[in-house]
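User: Structure tokens for both sequences below?

Assistant:
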Amino acid sequence: MQIYLDYSATTPPHPLVLQRVQAVCTEGWGNPSSLHSWGNRAATLLETARCQVASLIGAANPDEIVFTAGGTEADNLAIFGITSQYPEPQHLIISQVEHPAIARAADTLEAQGWQVTRLGVDGQGRIAPTDLEQAIQSNTVLISIIYGQSEIGTIQPIAALGAIAKKHGILFHTDAVQAVGRIPIDLQTLPVDLLSLSGHKIYGLQGAGALYVRDGVELKPQIYGGGQERSLRSGTQNLPGIVALGTAAELAEQTLPEESLRLLMMRNQLLRLGANHGHLQITGDCDQRLPHHVSFALRQDSPLLGLTGKAIVRQLNLAGIAISAGSACHSGKLNPSAILKAIGYGDRQALSGIRLTLGAQTQTEDIEWTTIALQQILERQYTAVLV
């Protein structure tokens, strides 16, 4: 039996996505910037995808969608597209639980003289709006807060945080790569100026994403060339990837209410069964949580503390089950998860985190079998410790 529970890492392309991509590659492969019929067909496909993405997130105008090569580029365009407009370093606010696409960008700015405030979070990974209010300075020009945290699943109070930014006249960006297509987002009511998303998280293809840029927000391009994407992202567009993203967005909008509820029920079952193992504790917020997301770490008092998340991933893989771990390996050294440390975990616990994320092909039987396999792994480890 093969069970894939790593949908936050990437999702399998939907069959309709593959069908439309094949049609693009065989019939609609023209350059969207060309003026002839081949180019016109390609441009129609491009703008259709732009409308589909805009509809999914409630953007008022499809032209507010700028296509990129993925979520990381969208994040970087948002951060550097704003900050590079300032001749002198200013002040940026992010959180301690950002994706590296934001965290490393902030590190780069800090090395250039920018002030960077990294907001702390509580034990569930949530930011207190009052902390954001207190962090704002006279020279704060941008606030970037992740929507749904990929490692622990916690959803931030984006509406409240965005409202604070708006009150102070500060631009607000959110990395919504894990949230788009999984929870309802309506940018006509949500106080967000910039929003990043990625196609391969919603059953599109890897290599295509988008940045929502609210009308009136000025960005400085980070890639120069032929002036595509309103000169904000030059380069001939990845039409197959963009059509895949648009198709995936259309499908997500159609299925979101029903699919979100289905995943939520299985998520809660897995959270409950996993927490009953005795050695594991849930990480992240159990209520304000992505509907497809489950994560655990070893309890502080567990005799298994020292068993790493990477080891659990490898053992489950031997059983045909794919999950992921939060700790990172650099130059052969295993490093504790920065996210788990940010919510108060010590180094040993922060090495033990695992993430199981559900998706379209996940069934209740997969949850039950994974729970059994995980229990067997922990019991074998416990027996080895006793010996």
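Moving on to the next sequence.
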Amino acid sequence: MLDLDSADKHDENFALKIRGNDLIIKNEKQFNMFPSHVGLRKYVHYYNIVFPSKDTFTAHYTLMPNACGTLSLAFDGTAVIAELWGASLTPVLLGMEPNSYHVLLLIQLSPYGLYQITRQSQAEFADKRLSLVDIDNELFNSLCQAFIMSKTTIELVNTCEKILYRRMENPLISDALLLATTVISDSHGQIQVKEVARQSGYSERHLNRLFLTQIGMNIKDFARLTRFNYVLKHIQTSPCFFATLSQQAGYFDQAHFDKDFKAISGVTPQKYLKTMSDFYYDGTEIYDTISSKED
């Protein structure tokens, strides 16, 4: 039923062509989110499997930047389109594009997960959507096989986990980078580069080189996005006066807060609050709301 030998690396849609007009996965909820296994969680945050309808996503639907990479596989009725999305530094307007897919799998990675998986410098991937087959043909074939042959969302996730786990056997992420990202995360991004270097015990130059290679951005941008996502988390969970939130997030005043928020997101905090349904925010807090797969 499925023709796995017809993948064309030069296809303009970066797609795996298949015969038939549907995949085997059926009778699932429209949105299916699964946390990664505890053994993968350092690199893979979660799996999101969506069965869009023609009006699921709005024309203004935008992904907020979070410094993380994503592996995306989508079936449009005739082909599997497999892409690598580099670490996001700016908003990504998806609009109604996902509505044209029958099923969409998004594998949300940690900031350095894409480096561990692809073993390639992330400086070339940041803020780009690229053909997965052009970057990693082996991973492309393995994930497409899983995507096409799985009969349920659970089976698809479990198969993807096995594929990705094989990429984790030889850890590549620098201890210096792990320490620096922890320092930044613990401060919610409210820390200067020189202080990150001091606490981690490495030079700014060395750390910036590691951040560019293994995440795809420098330390300052990573810290800025960490603070931005700290703000988004508070707006999502408990909207409050922006003057108070700007103080909590370490801004000089609300004017500085408003300016930085708009520079990163493209909208003011006030407009974001009014139109949150047009934006996708990845809080990576799903472990508190979804049963974890510890066993």
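User: Anything stand out in the second?

Assistant: The mean pLDDT is 86.
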